[in-house]
TrEMBL record, chain B:
Keywords: Cell membrane, Disulfide bond, Glycoprotein, Membrane, Phosphoprotein, Receptor, Repeat, Signal, Transmembrane, Transmembrane helix
Organism, scientific name: Phalacrocorax carbo
Record-level Gene Ontology MF annotations: cytokine binding; cytokine receptor activity
Protein name: Oncostatin-M-specific receptor subunit beta
Record domain Fibronectin type-III: where: 306-402, 404-502, 605-718
Length: 163, 775
């Protein structure tokens, strides 16, 4: 998914002619995409907002592009992947139900001008790509650590068994 | 008064400019003094427009008007090609009465300010998100903040622009703009700094007006719902909420049509009609660049497009099908058409008038038994036909079986054996024969013509097409019938005459018929025969594979008026001799009339004649090749032979021969023998004691093969010459030698020396003479 996120951003930046002066490559990431991920709950929250953001970007792009445009196809594909991850997270780590009246805090007001909307979309995709890259590295690190631990504990029990 | 008016001016007393940013135009309002209105003067006004960045007037125009008595101000509109926000625009006006020669003073410049005078916190681009028509021109500006210079101002994707960016206001003009295959064009602007607030961005859209709706037409299936359809038109390159929108309006009722437009390949809109029957529908398509309309005026009862018939089912006999179907919409009188697709691909159409019945039907007659037909139905309005419905689903129906029609075509091959004949019977379905059923079996029956024998019969399955029966020498009637599940066909009958009759015919010489050679062509072998009026049909038989046993006998039958045929068979092979027998048939009895033999195409002989005997004389050589075959084992009719001769060392020049040049340019003498049975030839006028090479080649209608092998001969030395040589040269030489050797002996024996007294000195003649005289 990290690779998919990077490819989507690269395609979007080029397709929307935004690869000028690093307009999209902002250092001011949205707060919900800054990471690090502290647990499945946090990841679920991020993915929920990312799914919504992708829907918004797709809706904006549908207003600009013919049906079947490549950008729409790619946005839909990434949206599906995010939804898939969300489903898995919700299956493995069901979220506690929110008390009535409690909602997610609203995001910043969406820009209304076409250029600003597509730039905002580009920056979110950039931030998402960075987030997924970090998450991937984080998970990879944990996985390696886990394997080391496992090997150590196996060796320990073997030594115990020998002695 | 006139002189007074000539020099009177009526200056502009009031001037007000406002801007319409949506339409990018200046609205100019002005007035002159009341006296001019009261006088109802005809006035000319000169109007000038200026922009702040140019010290020149960008536009000058004249406006002529006759003032009304009511003191209403005058109005005028100026459309700007540059966004009004880009810079301040100024207008001034002066006036002149038509009767006067003098222009008034100019009014003061009246200005509408542009955004360049504002205290903006960031640069701004105008127009913002404009939609322009492909092929038009567009001018954009970027207004920097106060005191800032525009460093960069460009479009992505890049297009050729006329730009001017050396000031607080940057200008870009694109002429004949095109959409370049992208949904929108982005605009980038940067002041001469790098912070985020130094940039401005925008987009604009390039599109097309929608096309006029094409093929706009309305119809109904059931007189309750009307559907209007039209073609979508070409690409406008504007999407989302900028897509063309369609609305339908009914002119007679002056109401919007309550339908929802849906477009895929075509657009359509449907609604429930009430009691209204006559409609005038206008469809309007509109996008931000323009709008187009199309109209349809119609009577609903004249626009019935029925639903396709459905639930087809049938009843059938062997020659008829009665087809039934249902209509979806009752109450509409319909006229239907049935399409019948025959097995040969031919299509027939049958019309039927319908009523309002829920079930309709049609009976199709004259059909073939046990034959598949594919049928389908469509209908149209019986009154005020508009168009056919779609075809119903097709139904494939097979008629029932019936008695086989026509007769089998039968033939025989008779082989005499001890005590009788073996008769091989063949049968096939003649072109006029129809099985009329799933499969046919065959029944072969035979009995003596004069009676006195039990009728014998055998049945055969559909895969069989021949059988062999044994009969004695009496005359037999053979009958073959086809049978299906319904009945037998009419019998095909053949009479095998008594064996003595056959012998009698043979005695008359009919069996000793001369075999006539026939020619092959590209299309087959042409057979013709003498027509005779006694026969009701002719049959030609031949073997498909003459070299095999059985040879796969074939036959073809012809009517009484036919006397020739081109026998074409895919099995005919060049170089194979086919023998054809022509029979005449009357009262089911066949008699052999003529024999033909021929090749589809003759080929040269495979093998050369083998010269078995070579008889040499001094000046001639006789060659014999008696055992060379000229029968059907040859791939063509042997027409004769060529004998080729040549001395080894030189070209041939024999008397009585023709010159034949080989591929290596050597020359042979060629002799032709035109009788294939003449298998002996003498080559004369050869030189003795000379080496010759010879070859004998057979030729057919397909020519002969190249010479490969030669026979070599040496003509004998000529002994007569030897004898002559001995007589004329050697014998005299021997005699001369002997004579020379024994000359003395010979001389003495032949011509001894006779003493001559005159030579004696003693007895010399002179003295004698003296003495004689003295006597």
């Amino acid at each position: 998914m990290a690779e998919d996120a990077q490819e989507l951003f690269a395609f979007y930046e080029k397709d929307q002619h935004l690869a000028i002066n690093n307009l999209c490559r902002t250092n001011h990431l949205p707060e919900w995409l800054r990471g690090p991920v502290t647990g499945p709950g946090a990841l679920r929250g991020t993915m929920t907002r990312m799914a919504q953001a992708l829907q918004d970007i797709a809706r904006h792009q549908r207003d600009l592009n013919p049906p079947g445009a490549e950008i729409l196809r790619r946005l839909a594909s990434t949206h599906l992947k995010v939804r898939g991850l969300l489903n898995n997270l919700e299956g493995l780590f069901p979220a506690p139900s929110l008390p009535p009246g409690r909602r997610h805090p609203p995001g910043p007001t969406a820009p209304t001008k076409v250029f600003q909307q597509k730039l905002e979309g580009c920056r979110i995709l950039w931030s998402y790509a960075r987030f997924m890259a970090k998450l991937s590295a984080q998970l990879e690190g944990r996985s390696r650590g886990g394997r080391r631990e496992k090997r150590r504990s196996h060796r320990g029990s073997w030594l115990l068994a020998r002695s | 008064l006139f002189v007074l008016l000539e020099s009177t001016v009526f200056p502009v007393t009031y001037l007000n400019i406002t801007k319409d940013l949506a339409l990018q135009r200046l609205l100019v309002e002005w007035d002159v003094g009341k006296p001019a209105h009261d006088a109802g003067l005809a006035m000319s006004f000169e109007i000038q427009v200026r922009r702040t960045d140019e010290n020149t007037t960008v536009w000058t125009g004249f406006h002529n008007v006759t003032l009304g008595k009511s003191a209403k101000p005058l109005h005028w509109i100026w459309d700007s090609d540059l966004p009004l926000e880009c810079m301040s625009h100024l207008v001034r006006i002066r006036s002149k009465a038509e009767v006067s020669k003098i222009w008034s003073q100019w009014s003061l410049w009246e200005a509408v300010l542009g955004m360049d005078t504002s205290n903006n916190s960031e640069p701004q681009i105008f127009p913002n998100e404009k939609i322009v028509e492909e092929g038009s021109d567009i001018t954009l500006c970027c207004i920097g903040r106060k005191g800032r210079i525009i460093k960069e101002f460009f479009l992505v994707p890049a297009v050729h622009v006329f730009s001017h960016t050396n000031s607080q206001v940057g200008l870009l003009t694109v002429k004949n703009v095109s959409h370049q295959g992208v949904p929108h064009i982005s605009v980038y602007c940067q002041e001469s700094c790098n912070e985020e607030q130094c940039y401005a961005h925008s987009v604009f859209f390039v599109g097309k007006q929608p096309d006029t709706p094409n093929d706009f037409s309305c119809q109904t299936q059931d007189m309750r719902i009307v559907t209007c359809t039209w073609s979508k038109g070409g690409e406008t390159y504007l999407y989302g909420h900028r897509l063309p929108k369609y609305t339908l309006f009914e002119e007679f009722s002056q109401k919007m049509v309550p339908c929802t437009v849906s477009c895929s390949e075509q657009c359509s809109c449907s609604w429930n009609i009430g009691q209204q029957r006559i409609y005038n529908i206008t469809v309007t398509v509109e996008n931000p660049l323009g709008k187009k309309t199309a109209m349809d005026v119609f009577d609903v009862t004249h626009r019935i497009y029925p639903a396709a018939p459905f639930q087809l089912w049938e009843e059938c006999t062997d020659t008829e099908i009665t087809l039934y179907w249902k209509h979806r919409n009752k109450g509409i009188e319909l006229f239907c058409q049935t399409e019948v697709l025959q097995p040969n691909g031919k299509v027939e159409l049958h019309n039927s008038s319908d009523t309002h019945l829920h079930y309709a039907s049609i009976t199709l007659g004259g059909l073939q038994p046990y034959t598949e037909y594919t049928v389908r139905v469509r209908c149209g309005a019986a009154k005020h036909f508009w168009r056919w419905s779609e075809w119903s689903e097709a139904l494939t129906i097979r008629t029932k079986e019936a008695t086989p029609s026509g007769k089998l075509d039968i033939w025989r091959e008779i082989t005499p054996v001890l005590g009788g004949r073996n008769v091989t019977l063949f049968w096939k379905q003649a072109p006029s024969f129809r099985a009329n059923g799933k499969s046919v079996s065959y029944e072969v029956t035979w009995e003596k013509v004069e009676g006195g024998s039990k009728r014998e019969s055998i049945s055969f399955s559909p895969v069989h097409n021949s059988t062999r029966i044994s009969i004695d020498n009496d005359s037999y009637r053979i009958s073959i019938m086809a049978k299906n599940n319904v009945n037998y066909s009419l019998p095909s009958v053949m009479i095998i005459p008594r064996a003595t009759e056959i012998l009698f015919c043979s005695f008359l010489g009919t069996e000793e018929l001369k075999e006539e050679q026939v020619n092959g062509t590209d299309d087959g072998i042409f057979i013709s025969w003498e027509p005779r009026h006694t026969y009701d049909s002719y049959i030609i038989e031949w073997c498909k594979v003459p070299m095999l046993q059985p040879c796969d006998l074939q036959w073809k039958r012809f009517g009484p008026n036919i006397s020739s045929a081109l026998i074409n068979s895919a099995a005919f092979v060049p170089g194979v001799r086919y023998n054809f027998h022509v029979y005449g048939s009357v009262a089911n009895r066949a008699s052999l009339l003529e024999k033909k033999t021929g090749y589809l195409r003759e080929l040269p002989p495979l093998l050369d004649p083998i010269v078995e005997k070579v008889e040499l004389t001094l000046n001639a050589v006789t060659l014999s090749w008696d055992s060379y075959p000229t029968d059907e084992s040859q791939p063509g009719f042997v027409r004769g032979y060529h004998v080729y001769v040549s001395p080894i060392q030189e070209d041939c020049l024999l008397k009585g021969s023709k010159k034949h040049v080989l591929p290596d340019d050597s020359v042979l003498c060629k002799y032709t023998i035109e009788d294939p049975e003449e298998k002996r030839y003498t080559v004369k006028h050869l030189l003795s004691n000379t080496k010759y090479k010879l070859a004998v080649k057979a030729y057919t209608g397909g020519g002969e093969t190249p010479i490969v092998n030669f026979i070599y001969i040496d003509t004998p030395f000529n002994s007569n010459l030897m004898y002559l040589l001995v007589l004329l040269v050697i014998v005299p030489a021997v005699i001369a030698a002997i004579c020379h050797w024994k000359m003395k002996w010979v001389k003495e024996r032949c011509c001894p020396v006779i003493p001559s007294p005159s030579k004696s000195k003693v007895l010399s003649f002179k003295a004698f003479k003296v003495r004689s005289l003295k006597i």
